[in-house]
Design brief:
elongated, 14% strand, 290 residues, single chain, alpha/beta, binds nicotinamide-adenine-dinucleotide
Length: 290
């Protein structure tokens, strides 16, 4: 396929390189100067999007996505597919989909989980919103860039799935970290705590697959001095998006809000920026109740 790829950063760069390596003709664009193996660069987003079968975007936020969409949709061929893989707010995803629909371009929101390692290794998971026709056209590309693509329904539902998942992740990581800190103060050995919880009803991905206590459970960022992994800053971004969506849908999400508030303090005033999101554990360790 002929593919336009806009946003060649930490995630987009390796995703575009994997598509080129698999034999697709990839034309890229980024506002920063970049060089990606196998990808030829265009002078503008519109130029990268012109006459392609599929255009993929991987951008920082919803406002940038909206402005890039305004520029590229008029340049895109009718019947071509516009796949946005960025993590953005549901409202922006749906607004961009409407712009594309009006121009007979098939829109899809397809945010990912798996991080930079998943982008490099082609093992991302895609959560996809959009029509069956669009999903079927892009499915072979998801197979190259990832290991799994779940079609979650119409436009916006991919973003909805992503922020609901990450709201659960933020809440369970905090619960796991505060429980470890309480266990410490009660004199409970961390290995015993892990052995019990990981096989009891308190188990979760945060405990079992990504244990925030160094030296306990499978290898995780805790074993590498809390180098991300999944940065606390990105967790905060996703928790903010989930609260924005909860506001706009009038959903009561008290624990999601508490998680957002905690990660806000952690990132903005407690040195958590640049650390893995599981570094909540040393944060709780240092604190007392008052
Ligand atoms: P990044 O900052 O490394 O890359 C974004 C790229 O977009 C940059 O190269 C930037 O120059 C480019 N850009 C900005 N404005 C542009 C414009 N108008 N036109 C063209 N290019 C433009 O960020 P990233 O880590 O690659 O993340 C991209 C998206 O993926 C974000 O929405 C993020 O939330 C999501 N995400 C990231 C991770 C991760 O672990 N990094 C994991 C899952 C999802």
């Amino acid at each position: 396929m002929n593919i336009g790829f806009i946003g060649l950063g930490n995630m987009g760069g390796p995703m575009a390189a994997n598509l080129a390596r698999a034999g697709h003709v990839v034309t890229g664009f980024d506002t920063a100067s970049v060089s990606i193996e196998g990808v030829s660069l265009a002078g503008s987003a519109a130029e990268a999007a012109k006459d392609q079968d599929v255009v993929i975007t991987m951008l920082p936020n919803g406002n940038i996505l909206r402005s890039v969409a305004e520029e590229i949709v008029p340049a895109m061929r009718a019947g071509s597919v516009f796949v946005d893989c960025s993590t953005v707010d549901v409202d922006s995803a749906r607004a961009v989909a409407e712009t594309a629909d009006k121009a007979d371009v098939l829109p899809m929101d397809a945010p990912v989980s798996g991080g930079v390692g998943g982008a490099q290794g082609g093992t991302l998971t895609f959560m996809v919103g959009g029509s069956d026709a669009a999903f079927n056209k892009a499915a072979p590309l998801f197979e190259i860039m990832g290991q799994k693509a779940v079609h979650c329904g119409p436009s916006g539902n991919g973003q909805a799935a992503k922020i609901c998942n990450n709201m659960i992740l933020g809440v369970t990581m905090i619960a796991t970290c505060e429980s470890f800190a309480l266990a410490d103060k009660l004199g409970l050995d961390r290995q015993a705590m892990f052995d019990v919880v990981s096989t009891s009803s308190g188990y979760s991905w945060s405990m079992n697959a990504y244990c925030p206590a160094p030296g306990i459970g499978p290898t995780s960022p805790a074993d590498n001095d809390y180098t991300p992994g999944f940065a606390a800053d990105l967790m905060l971004k996703d928790l903010r998006l989930s609260q924005q969506a909860a506001e706009s849908a009038d959903a009561d999400t008290p624990l999601g809000k508490a998680a957002m508030d905690l990660y806000t303090s952690f990132v903005e005033s407690e040195g958590g920026s640049g650390q893995d999101f599981s570094a909540m554990l040393p944060r709780f360790e240092k604190r007392s109740r008052g």
